[in-house]
């Protein structure tokens, strides 16, 4: 782990199956599975349902492996932050060594099986995604630069590209548009969280933008990235993966998202603290629905095309 002085809380381990599942970050995994599935179904080539199911399952396992490796490495700072203190390792429910072993085993299994069920390019991209999240983001960027979320967001943006490659065996502009949607969404999503989590990142000595540049600068960054995201999201409606239903959804959602970002950028810190960061929390909750809605509409548009569900 990053902090050699950190040790898992002493005592008798009473590890339950659910504790190992929690190591896999199931909420993050659900987003990975959904966006990868949309990437697969939006692709122009057909995929046999059994192959599609198996491939998405192995992508999910790879996402879980990344989560376990991240929790192993970040156990020292997770123990300090209120939001993460109850995770399996800092709470003493799972030994750190077991989390590492689980992460490594699932990483190898997921990549190998995706190569067999789909193709080598998809498996290679999955391997790179796991490496990017566990090593480049968790071990390097997260503790070294306030751009940790900006650059590290690429790890969460790869799943729809993997899904597309599973179906087609190649990259395309459409796949990278889906990548860009997640990549540009990630910073305002996490910066809103950082604004109302107060001192968590300060206490853990994580160089989040709120810590290194201040909360005023973070609010400005939220509006800048949201403007760029809005242009990208609405513009995607005029591409091959867009359409009238996607475009209508994107216009409404991005108008709401942009209004929320403007409200955040205008907030006085004392006023925000006095009302319990209601505006920031509302923006964060909307951001959770934002991505699911956009990718859901990409899926709807794919279903309405003549080939139907990825050509099934």
From TrEMBL:
<feature type="transmembrane region" description="Helical">
    <location>
        <begin position="120"/>
        <end position="137"/>
    </location>
</feature>
<feature type="transmembrane region" description="Helical">
    <location>
        <begin position="175"/>
        <end position="196"/>
    </location>
</feature>
<feature type="transmembrane region" description="Helical">
    <location>
        <begin position="50"/>
        <end position="73"/>
    </location>
</feature>
<comment type="pathway">
    <text>Porphyrin-containing compound metabolism; heme O biosynthesis; heme O from protoheme: step 1/1.</text>
</comment>
<dbReference type="GO" id="GO:0048034">
    <property type="term" value="P:heme O biosynthetic process"/>
</dbReference>
<comment type="subunit">
    <text>Interacts with CtaA.</text>
</comment>
<keyword id="KW-0472">Membrane</keyword>
<comment type="similarity">
    <text>Belongs to the UbiA prenyltransferase family. Protoheme IX farnesyltransferase subfamily.</text>
</comment>
<comment type="function">
    <text>Converts heme B (protoheme IX) to heme O by substitution of the vinyl group on carbon 2 of heme B porphyrin ring with a hydroxyethyl farnesyl side group.</text>
</comment>
<dbReference type="Pfam" id="PF01040">
    <property type="entry name" value="UbiA"/>
</dbReference>
<keyword id="KW-1133">Transmembrane helix</keyword>
<dbReference type="InterPro" id="IPR006369">
    <property type="entry name" value="Protohaem_IX_farnesylTrfase"/>
</dbReference>
<keyword id="KW-1003">Cell membrane</keyword>
<feature type="transmembrane region" description="Helical">
    <location>
        <begin position="283"/>
        <end position="304"/>
    </location>
</feature>
<feature type="transmembrane region" description="Helical">
    <location>
        <begin position="244"/>
        <end position="262"/>
    </location>
</feature>
<feature type="transmembrane region" description="Helical">
    <location>
        <begin position="94"/>
        <end position="114"/>
    </location>
</feature>
<keyword id="KW-0812">Transmembrane</keyword>
<keyword id="KW-0350">Heme biosynthesis</keyword>
<keyword id="KW-0808">Transferase</keyword>
<dbReference type="InterPro" id="IPR000537">
    <property type="entry name" value="UbiA_prenyltransferase"/>
</dbReference>
<dbReference type="GO" id="GO:0005886">
    <property type="term" value="C:plasma membrane"/>
</dbReference>
<feature type="transmembrane region" description="Helical">
    <location>
        <begin position="149"/>
        <end position="169"/>
    </location>
</feature>
<feature type="transmembrane region" description="Helical">
    <location>
        <begin position="28"/>
        <end position="44"/>
    </location>
</feature>
<dbReference type="GO" id="GO:0008495">
    <property type="term" value="F:protoheme IX farnesyltransferase activity"/>
</dbReference>
<protein>
    <recommendedName>
        <fullName>Protoheme IX farnesyltransferase</fullName>
        <ecNumber>2.5.1.141</ecNumber>
    </recommendedName>
</protein>
<dbReference type="InterPro" id="IPR030470">
    <property type="entry name" value="UbiA_prenylTrfase_CS"/>
</dbReference>
<feature type="transmembrane region" description="Helical">
    <location>
        <begin position="217"/>
        <end position="238"/>
    </location>
</feature>
């Amino acid at each position: 782990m990053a902090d050699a002085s950190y040790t898992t809380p002493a005592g008798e381990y009473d590890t339950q199956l659910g504790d190992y599942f929690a190591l896999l970050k199931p909420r993050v995994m659900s987003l990975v599975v959904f966006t990868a599935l949309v990437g697969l179904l939006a692709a122009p080539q057909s995929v046999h349902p059994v192959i599609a199911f198996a491939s998405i399952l192995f992508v999910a396992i790879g996402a879980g492996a990344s989560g376990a490796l991240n929790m192993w490495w970040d156990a020292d700072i997770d123990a300090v932050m209120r939001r993460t203190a109850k995770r399996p390792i800092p709470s003493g429910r799972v030994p750190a060594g077991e989390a590492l072993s689980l992460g490594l085993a699932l990483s190898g299994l997921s990549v190998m099986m995706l190569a067999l069920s789909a193709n080598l390019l998809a498996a290679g991209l999955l391997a790179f995604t796991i490496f990017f999240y566990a090593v480049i983001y968790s071990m390097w960027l997260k503790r070294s630069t306030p751009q940790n979320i900006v650059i590290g967001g690429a790890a969460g943006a790869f799943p729809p590209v993997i899904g597309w490659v599973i179906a087609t065996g190649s990259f395309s502009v459409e796949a990278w548009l889906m990548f860009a949607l997640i990549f540009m969404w990630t910073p305002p999503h996490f910066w809103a969280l950082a604004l109302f989590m107060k001192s968590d990142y300060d206490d853990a000595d994580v160089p989040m933008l709120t810590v290194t540049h201040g909360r005023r600068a973070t609010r400005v960054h939220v509006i800048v990235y949201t403007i760029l995201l809005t242009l990208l999201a609405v513009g995607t409606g005029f591409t091959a993966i867009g359409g009238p239903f996607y475009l209508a959804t994107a216009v409404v959602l991005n108008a709401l998202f942009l209004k929320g970002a403007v409200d955040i950028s205008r907030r006085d810190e004392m006023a925000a603290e006095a009302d319990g960061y209601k505006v920031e929390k509302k923006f964060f909750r909307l951001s959770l629905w934002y991505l699911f809605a956009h990718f859901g509409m990409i899926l709807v548009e794919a279903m309405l095309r003549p080939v139907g569900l990825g050509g099934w």
